[in-house]
Amino acid sequence: MKSAIRLYIIYRKNRDYLDTQLRCRGLNSRRLSQMLMRTDPFRDFDRLSEAVFGTTSRPAPMPMDAYRHDGRFVVNLDLPGVDAESIDLTVEQNVLSIHAERRPPMDGDAERVVGERTYGTFSRQLFLGETLDVENLAADYNAGVLTIEIPVAEQAKPRKIQINGSDSRKRISA
Predict the structure, then answer these.
(1) 152 burial via Cβ count (<10 Å: 0-12, 13-18, 19+)
(2) Which CA distances in Å does 68 have to 10, 53, 62, 64, 81?
(3) How would DSSP label each residue in the chain?
(4) Residue 2: pLDDT above 90?
């Protein structure tokens, strides 16, 4: 049975050659496909989650890195093939919204042979903390990477606190 399953998987890839191999072993492709038919209740959920969150072979459309460096918070978003004029950044009540649109480079009458790249409007929201100075936010788009720099507010920066005290000791009598 295991060899029949292996053969069927290979058969789907190279039907002409393996059809004769199945006949030599006394199997036909129709019987073999009926043996492998089963339902997976989570298959549609997996397809939906892969479409929304992406997979390792096809990641989500707007991957991001974020880090804190030299008193500022830096966010890098990969947006290859996006025109800089189509990128829209808005900040409202400490929520940074990023919208970008990637248009297909071909005309409407062109025939697509392979379509693996995603097109359309992409959006992402980042919830910013109260410790960031959103009034001085700066953005730069270069080589398909959108870099957003948000300074850390002065009241949130670490500071040294001076401790006042005297060197003289006092004696307490009871």
Answers:
(1) middle
(2) 50, 25, 20, 14, 27
(3) -HHHHHHHHHHHHSHHHHHHHHHHTT--HHHHHHHT----TTHHHHHHHHHHHB-SSSB-SS-EEEEEETTEEEEEEE-TT--GGG-EEEEETTEEEEEEEE--SS-TTPPPS---S--EEEEEEEE--TTB-GGG-EEEEETTEEEEEEEBPGGGS--PPPPP--S-------
(4) no
Average pLDDT over the chain, rounded to an integer: 75
- Let me know: does 104 contact 111? Beta carbons within 8 Å: no
Main-chain phi, psi angles of 58, to 5 degrees: -140, 85
Closest CA to 98 of 146, 150, 153: 146
Which two structure tokens, joined as six digits, stand for 92? 């409202």
pLDDT of 32: 44
Dihedrals φ, ψ of 36, to 5°?
Answer: -95, 0
